[in-house]
Amino acid sequence: MLNIIRPRRLRRTANIRRMVRETKVSVDDLIFPLFVVFGSGKKEEIESMPGNFRWSVDRVHEEIEQVVEANIPAVLLFGIPETKDEIGSGADAEDGVVQQAIRKIKELAPELVVIGDVCLCEYTSHGHCGVLRGDEVDNDATLERLASVAVSLARAGADMVAPSDMMDGRVAAIRAALDEAGFEHVAIMSYAAKYASAFYGPFREAADSAPQFGDRSTYQMDPPNLREALREIELDIAEGADIVMVKPALAYLDVVAAAREAFDVPLAAYNVSGEFAMVKTAAQRGWIDERRIVMEIVCGIKRAGADLILTYHAKDIARWLKE
């Protein structure tokens, strides 16, 4: 008989498969996004994102205790203000909801890495990610606002800031402002390749951040473009980004892979709200095995080259990894 090669030998038992597994997902890879709101006693489930809530600061400890118990190393905070205006004044207010939440979380869990999202869309009355000039987002006027927001978050105790606006030059402006204010130690995780995606729908419900007119295609990336993503990432690294991110994850795994090949810096991918909601809805209807699907998804993101995965599944993943 021919001495054929038999790869199946290394698939024969669960322990053999475990021994030769090439890609491994760890709880250390995970960042859990969460939403905070003004008020007291609030735990509002987000209808399109089952199991995720908007928390008032006085109850955010309930979520943080679960995150710490799960050994998830980091959270990313988004805030919903009481009032909105044209320039998003609530985003850098000393008593802003995210600033309050950061201070509270750092009291509760000093070692937890707290990341503050830097954008204006939740805070502006028009829902766009920057300051308007007419019906257009004014790039350079927005940079001043973003820098102020980043410093405000750092002053509240954030370990890292994450600009998600996609303005040109924002990383350089934020780095300069942080350094000038004495926050040289605060890292920047930039949404370096953030696409104008249809996968953000549930998030916009969660954060009340849908644009009131038009869309964000003049500043977020055009989905067909890969080479442009690499240029955006290169620019952000040159401007001082410590970690770069691709968002969304699943439809852009080729971008994650290309970025991993091209750049030797920590790389994150955001498994976004629409991706989460599709899995949850199908699982609730009994159409899929939620645990297997989620673990396959995050393994695929990791296999493509991501070091870090931002995902609303993080607590479930952490629990499954222990079992």
Low-pLDDT parts are none
Total number of helical segments?
11
Cα distance spanning the termini: 43 Å
Number of domains: 1
According to CATH, the fold-level topology is: TIM Barrel
Structural Rg: 20 Å
The CATH homologous superfamily corresponds to Aldolase class I
Strand order of the largest sheet: 1-4-5-8-9-10-11-12
Query: What is the 3D form?
Result: globular
The biggest beta sheet reads:
8 strands, parallel, barrel
> From the structure provided, what is the oligomeric state, counting identical versus distinct chains?
single chain
Provide mean pLDDT, rounded.
94
Assign a percent range to the helix content.
25-40%
What structural class do helix, strand and pairing data support? alpha/beta
CATH architecture descriptor: Alpha-Beta Barrel
- Give the CATH level 1 class: Alpha Beta
Number of strands: 12
Task: Give structural notes.
With 323 residues, this protein is an alpha/beta fold. The protein has one domain: Aldolase class I (TIM Barrel, Alpha-Beta Barrel). Helices cover 38% and strands 18% of the residues. The chain is built from eleven helices and twelve strands. The strands form two sheets. The protein has an eight-stranded parallel barrel with strand order 1-4-5-8-9-10-11-12, surrounded by eight helices. α3 links the parallel β4 (74-80) and β5. α4 crosses α5. The longest helix is centred in the middle third of the chain and has 18 residues, at 139-156. It is globular. The model has no long low-confidence stretch (mean pLDDT 94).
